[in-house]
Write a structure and sequence with these properties.
The complex is a heterodimer of chains A (about 240) and B (about 500).
Chain A (H helix, E strand, L loop, with lengths): L7 E4 L2 E4 L6 H7 L23 E4 L2 E4 L10 E3 L3 H17 L14 H8 L23 E3 L9 H9 L5 E4 L6 E4 L26 E3 L12 H4 L8 H5 L1
Parallel strand pairs in A: 1-5
Antiparallel strand pairs in A: 1-2, 3-4, 3-5, 6-9, 7-8
Chain B lengths: L14 E5 L6 E2 L1 E7 L5 E8 L5 H4 L8 H4 L8 H15 L7 H33 L10 H7 L1 H22 L8 E2 L2 E2 L5 H31 L1 H6 L6 E6 L11 E5 L5 E6 L8 E4 L8 E4 L3 H4 L2 E2 L2 H7 L6 H14 L9 H21 L18 E8 L2 E9 L5 E7 L1 H4 L1 H16 L6 H13 L3 E2 L11 E6 L5 E7 L7
Helix pairs in contact in B: 4-6, 4-12, 5-6, 6-7, 7-12, 10-12, 11-12, 14-15
Bound molecules: iron/sulfur cluster and FE2/S2 (inorganic) cluster (FES).
Chain lengths: ~240, ~500
Amino acid sequence: MSQNKQASFTLDGKTIPYAEGQTIIQAAMAAGEYIPHLCFNPEFKPHGSCKLCTVKANGRQTASCTQQPQPGMVVESDTTEINDERRALLQMLFVEGNHFCPSCEKSGNCQLQATAYELNMMSPHFDQFFPDRPVDASHPEYLLDFNRCILCSLCVRASRDVDGKNVFALSGRGIKSHLIVNAKSGRLADTDFTGYDKAAHVCPVGVILKKRVGFTVPIGSRSFDEKPISATPHPTVKGA
Amino acid sequence: MSSLLETAANPENLRRVAIDPVSRVEGHGKVTILLDDKNKVHQVRLHIVEFRGFEKFIQGRPYWEVPVMVQRLCGICPVSHHLAASKALDAIVGAKHLTPTAEKIRRLMHYGQILQSHALHFFHLCSPDLLFGFDSDVSKRNIVGIAEKYPETARRGILLRKFGQEVIRHTAGKRVHGTGSVPGGVNKSLSVPERDELLKDIYQMVAWSREAVHMVKELHHKNPELYNSFGAFRANYMSMVGFDGSLDLYHGTLRARDANGNILFDGVDYQNYTQLIEEEVKNWSYMKFPYLKSLGKEKGWYRVGPLSRVQNCDFISTPLAEIERREFMAYSGVMPMHAPLGYHWARMIEMLHAAETIKDLLHDDDITGSDLIATGERCFEGVGVIEAPRGTLIHHYRVDENDLITMCNLIVSTTHNNQAMNEAVRRVAQQYLHGHEITEGLLNHIEVAVRAFDPCLSCATHALGKMPLEIEVLNEAGERLSSLSRSGDGTLS
Ligand code: SF4
Ligand code: FES
């Protein structure tokens, strides 16, 4: 093997070159291949929580956003078995929160919705939880609609790692996990959050929203109206 | 308020006939009739299972979501709710005057909705009764029967409706659950290719709408006895009229007249509607009964919708519809027309006006403009009113300083007409059922009266030509002695 020959693995039969330190999903993205994901954003350290990016690497299931490839590794992603599991994960996310796409202002720019379309999710399948989660509208410029939080922790990571502020945190365990705002009152208005923060622009769904924007951009002209998520590079960054 | 035949003196001795659901109306309604052993009618009630959870549900939501969210109220005329809510929120964002492009795009959307809704109602839901007869063969009395016997009529109905839907799609972004109208304006105008696509067909739509008016008019002329008296009752009537007194289904002020056509109030800013209208609750209906405060509960109920609007305005701004309005007014004479079947005629005049208005708007360069949103001084309360296909629609919101909705009140068209529809079915029951052996054909008369109002019962179940029917004979204790039910195909069991 020559020294400078780049290492590679195969993804659904296609050869994907990778560099030292890259994860499977990073190498796949760099090669223009799509692996469904929600809590991964190329700008942030992986979190490995949503499991949408699960693949089979040499026959073993693993999160492709945290797993580094090995030379010659055989990775399967777009298979009926894995996609069925991903669809079930999506369905659980949909029923755990309150996701009413037809009246959600993030519709067409939402990664959860776009991923559900990508994976042909036709119905929520499970019984809806219909949790009661009031919105936090205390901040003059930004609104938090907790109904749609999928606990990806991107806002937590952005606020802590980029903004150096720690405005958001995940609290509780298991089914009780939820997003909180780090203020005594629990209200966004009582933090130092601003619209210039990175955290204001990373939410893949419709939780952290600039106020009074709503439907100013018509349905039909939004990120995923034109192209499916699989053909939209780095949607989290673009959708921001 | 309590009217003749609303409540029987001794209901426990009577036989109960239920028409449930009323077919060929939008949504779910039910009529119950109490008869004695001589088939004399003692009580008739139209019940509507109306969805009112929305007013609660929307509280705590950000206001800019409302025009889109509110369309979930009703899959039948979502555009009307979309626009009425937007108008209320215009007041909240302080957009006193919309940009010309925004105002015209919204009008276009609205008249598209009027066109498609009126076409659907007349051709699909009512023409079977009007063309075949109220007690004609029930297996043919539906749109499939119309398509067999009058294929051209059925085809026009379908194409008129489709055209209206295309207007909606181009202005609202989608055929249903559009997002085109936003607080203070719209989010898109028409592109030149979109406009040209609609222009291609609009002349045909105007011509067909005109012929539809002629068709209904002829029915009136051929059988004036039936058309003038069927279920007729006198009532006050109310609608929004344009600032110049014209028929304007998008914007204007409120005007009401008494049963003789005399003005009760005029030029009222709808922001003050609560000073005019109050709603009464009755224990037997989910739907409230609104009335004009000045006249009180007993006398203050009123009618809305096409029959009210066409007679309430001073003129129609588009020439063909104005000719038809004048003929309509001449036909009814000095007194206003109160006959429920007059709704069909008035509705077709409005459809023609909608087609003509769309044509004019498509020739207006403003609809391809780019100045879409107006702003102004923020307020905390707003009312929006629109003349929806079925009548006056009122949306009223209060918003807090954090932009969340704190109060919502809606009065939808069908609610305004609640008492009027009950009056109509009571008249028909008296005119046709009283003392007769009940037949399917006779019961359909009741449905014909309900259908004339085009009630929207806020639910998408819509049985085509199917009228499940249940007759129960009860003893004095209200126990069931025997029953008769009839399935949609007319078989008894
Ligand atoms: S608010 Fe958005 S970014 Fe933050 S955890 Fe929830 S879904 Fe993720
Ligand atoms: S994207 Fe890998 S676990 Fe969420």
